[in-house]
Amino acid sequence: MKFRLSFALLISLSFSEAFLVSTQTTGLCRGSAHELSVKGQFGRGGVEKLSAIATKRQRGAISKPSLVAACSNKNCGVSKKTSLLIEYCNEGTVDASKEAEKILYRLEEMEGALTAVHYASVINSWANAGNTTRALSVLNRMIRYQESDEISSKSVVLPNSHCYSIAMKAIINSFKTRDQRICSNGSLAEQCENLVDKMKKINEATDEIDARPNTVVFNTLLAAYSEDVTALFLKRKMDDRKRLYPNVEGLSNADDKALKNLVGKALDLLKEMEDKTSNFPDPDVYSYCTVISILAKCEDMEMALLAETYLPTVTNRYDTPTYNALISAYANTGTIKGAERANALLEELEAAMIEANSSVQPRNFGANAITYHNVLSGYIKTCKIGDDGYAAEKAESILNRMEEKLSSSKLTEEEKHYRYQPNVIAYSSIIDAWSKSGTKTDRAEALLHRMENKGIKPNVVTYTSVLTSFARNDSIEGPSKAMELLQHMSNLYIETGDTSVKPNVISYFAVIDCWCRCNVAKGGFEAEKLLQEMEKMYRHGDKKMRPDVRVYARIIFAHAKSGNFDHAINVLKRMEEFTLTGDEKYALAKPNQVCYNTLINAFGQRGKAKKALGVLNQMDQFSSKSGGVVADERTFNAIIHVLSTSNLKGKARKALKILERLENSHIDGDWTSSPSARSYNMIINACSNSIKADEQERKEALDIAFDVFFRMRSSLNVKTDRYTYISMLKTCGKLIPKASIEDRKLAVGTVFRACCDEGLVDQQILTNFLMASPDDLIQAMLGQGRRTSCLADLPKEWSDRSYK
């Protein structure tokens, strides 16, 4: 099947990858057998004869029905059988390939009738029909004949380099289509390596030049390495997102090792091809482009620098595929330094084109649109939420250069489009970069209007990036602008039926997020209206508009932020009912910890500790009924924090029970509920804030504080830090009566000595020690008075960890 790359797909690949995919990897020699033989890629024997037969067939001298009728005769000659074989092979269908293979086996019975061209044509036919297994079986048939002693040497046809390269390309295509019949036989690189090894053995046994691996074969092997590297690269990207979970860490490390192994193999192969003393063919521009594209996926500056060392080896100094692959290597590093170097290489190509000063330039010379997009992408990859917009500014400057050259260039319209036309991906990515800046989001909206004025149609990704910029700007007019743009998208879809502009779940989420961030009392209600729209669309058949738990969590947040807690709890209860009953009339997503934690934090910020505890109880009851969501570390820490800042009676005791529950969850095997130093420190802080309680409760709070402190000191999982000692010294100063000098000396002295032993003493800890300590304790421990004590005068080992 023919394969054509869209311009958008070309932008997402390095140029060398796109070239290999379109001409080497997926083309599978789609031409006629005559074309293939004339190119001289099938070996020498029988080429002239087959070429003459094919030429006669193309002139219409023999019709296909006549050939079929003639070949049904047992006495039919080689010429007609070969012509019919060519006819079937050119069709490239499963049925035609079967017929071609039958003719091939008949020709095998005729001594001297076959050449490697016949076999290669049938292999190619099966490859084009999408059946790599049958293509390989034909190749293996040739190999078995060569290895068999029972077959006369006159009847043996050696598989040549083109037979192998077609088979290897077919394997590559099978991996692209995930054909399990092929994928289950081992990795792509291993299968292609096995074919190359077989070819080398045949060459050693026969010393036939045609059976020797040529540059195309090794380039195809490099392409196989590239495909495996791409697969690992994408898998590693997915693993990066999963590293929150400890059980996949080993998989990611294994992938990194496999990636390095493949890169090493590609570099070794290229080195052998470059070695003039070896029997390997010389590398060509596609060899270097493929290796550079492999190095580009390493996302490593050292690999990019290594890729640049191959640049002088290319015959054409300003070869577009090579430069594009190299620029992609630098762009993929995700660093400003890499993006700047990519831009410098682009400027080299621009200067070369100016120096050439020609209105008609070769397609493989200088920069093209892919070059500009790769450089632009390099800057985009350095963008982070909340940055200063530097990367977005640089990316837009690249876009400005493209538009300027597009309008001022003297090239033909076709050439200008090839060289300088920015696509919707370029605009969308820059808009997204501006939205991440947070402070310059107006640039995102301006760029949207600019691309519309230039006749470039935005898609849903473009519009959604602008909607996201409204949310990140936190402006008062943001929600109204977002609603207006969302309505514009809906109207465009209704009027034109163009699904590329139809708002999706992410678009709605961006507008909901916009209402959540704004300080408007009705924000929660407006956000819930959008949720109801999504639910309605889903229930009317648009299954892609199903809101997920993140959408519901934002609605809960919006209501809670506005103080509309009843509405927030109602949304949560709807989600619980859906989980318990499965009835979609309630909601379309199950609640998770974020939904409950959002409510707990909101109640805590308003000082409603009892309400927060009520949410925890609600969560526990729901968990006992559904066996699903359970409280995690964030839930428990949120409750502890709420208690520490509340005025509840016995809050220190309540906070300790929550901590013990968190500890027990971890012991029972819930690895998502592991207590941290922050958990313990908040308990101590809750004790410190018990200063207004009665004497009995203050004494209990002090005991709890020291209990927690000693637990931390003896724990293997958490360590005391500066906040622990600050909170403990404050607790001692607040809860121990000033008249109880001995008690103060014992408690404060114990804490401060432990702090000194750990080397954590800093100025704030020293200040709290001085405030909590009696004068004689200060004199005894520091050797000086309260007012003369200075951190610089203390032993250095007391503070050796305080600044690390």
Provide a descriptive summary of the structure in words.
The chain is mostly helical and 804 residues long. It has 39 helices and no strands. 46% of the residues are buried. Residues 1-60, 150-154 and 239-251 have low confidence and may be disordered.
The shape, in one word, is: elongated
The main β sheet shows up as:
none
Using the CA coordinates, give the radius of gyration.
36 Å
Instruction: Note the beta-strand portion.
Output: under 5%
- Distance from N terminus to C terminus (CA atoms, Å) equals 62 Å
The protein's oligomeric status is: single chain
Key terms for this structure?
single chain, 804 residues, mainly alpha, 39 helices, 0% strand, disordered N terminus
Please sum up the structure shown.
With 804 residues, this protein is an all-alpha fold.
Question: What is the topological layout?
Answer:
Layout: H1 7-12, H2 15-25, H3 33-38, H4 47-58, H5 64-71, H6 78-91, H7 94-108, H8 116-128, H9 132-147, H10 161-176, H11 180-183, H12 188-206, H13 215-242, H14 249-274, H15 285-296, H16 301-308, H17 320-331, H18 336-356, H19 369-380, H20 390-408, H21 413-420, H22 424-437, H23 442-453, H24 460-473, H25 478-496, H26 505-517, H27 523-539, H28 549-561, H29 565-581, H30 593-605, H31 609-626, H32 633-644, H33 651-667, H34 677-688, H35 695-714, H36 722-735, H37 741-758, H38 763-772, H39 775-782
